[in-house]
């Protein structure tokens, strides 16, 4: 099975989103990411409607709360038949384990966010006062997630080899911050091309604006899939 290109549906309204999706032929095996922006506006009915179209869903809610609240939230999401869900790894061991417990019996992969790809070393040390080097912090959070039952992490592609080394080959590394050579980097600090991500061992890539803001979203998607799965 080819590894997925997950399309991040970060749209301001559902009409724009549905219009974007209408470019894709019905038989496209689409894997989409629903993030906070769309979920806050359209909630579960939107998730269900995309699932009913046969799309695979990465529900990117980046949960971060006390373990009890996260577990109860995950128990609810476990009924939604989504393929991936995110929590923040920095929520700690108990919170990660509680999320996994909440998802018990479902097919939802639990992914922990390590360090956001929009944060560089200076934000980490100067703003968040985290003394570790960024790479050490990421591998530490990845190991914490692994040890507490997560199925994988969200990280930069550049960090995948280190993460696989401290966890396991089967531990999923899902990587945003993907930019084909011709695309604008924008607010992302840690970027890689689809080819680089593949060579570094990513299990799936998350791509938003290079596809959703393109004149021809379907072609952009196909080109990225081609480079990724070569
Ligand atoms: O959890 C994520 O998906 C995520 C984590 C992270 O560290 N960086 C990151 O960019 N993302 C998401 O990945 C997507 C990237 O979108 P583009 O930068 O438009 O390709 C957005 O939906 C982000 O919310």
From TrEMBL:
Active site residues according to the UniProt entry: 60 (for ompdecase activity), 62 (for ompdecase activity), 62 (proton donor), 65 (for ompdecase activity)
Catalytic activity, as annotated: orotidine 5'-phosphate + H(+) = UMP + CO2
EC number: 4.1.1.23
InterPro entries: Aldolase_TIM (IPR013785), OMPdecase (IPR014732), OMPdecase_AS (IPR018089), OMPdecase_bac (IPR047596), OMPdeCOase_dom (IPR001754), RibuloseP-bd_barrel (IPR011060)
Record flagged with keyword Lyase: yes
NCBIfam families for the chain: PRK00230.1, pyrF
Similarity comment: Belongs to the OMP decarboxylase family. Type 1 subfamily.
Function: Catalyzes the decarboxylation of orotidine 5'-monophosphate (OMP) to uridine 5'-monophosphate (UMP).
Protein's name in the database: Orotidine 5'-phosphate decarboxylase
The species this protein was found in: Companilactobacillus tucceti DSM 20183
């Amino acid at each position: 099975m080819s590894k997925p290109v997950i399309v991040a549906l970060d749209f301001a309204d559902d009409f724009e989103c549905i219009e974007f999706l209408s470019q894709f032929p019905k038989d496209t095996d689409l894997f989409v990411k629903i993030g906070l922006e769309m979920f806050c506006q359209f909630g579960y009915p939107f998730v269900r409607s995309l699932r009913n179209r046969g799309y695979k869903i990465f529900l990117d809610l980046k949960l971060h709360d006390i373990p009890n609240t996260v577990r109860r939230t995950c128990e609810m999401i476990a009924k939604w038949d989504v393929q991936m869900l995110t929590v923040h790894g920095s929520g700690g061991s108990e919170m990660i384990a509680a999320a996994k417990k909440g998802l018990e019996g479902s097919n939802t992969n639990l992914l922990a966010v390590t360090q956001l790809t929009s944060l560089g070393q200076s934000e980490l040390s100067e703003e968040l006062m985290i003394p570790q080097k960024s790479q050490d912090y990421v591998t530490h959070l990845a190991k914490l997630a692994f040890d507490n039952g997560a199925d994988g992490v969200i990280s930069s592609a550049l960090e995948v080899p280190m993460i696989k080394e401290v966890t396991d080959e089967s531990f999923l590394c899902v990587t945003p911050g993907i930019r084909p050579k011709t695309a604008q980097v924008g607010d992302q600090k840690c970027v890689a091309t689809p080819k680089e991500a593949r060579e570094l061992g990513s299990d799936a890539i998350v791509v938003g604006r290079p596809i959703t803001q393109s004149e021809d979203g379907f072609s952009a998607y196909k080109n990225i899939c081609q480079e990724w799965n070569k």
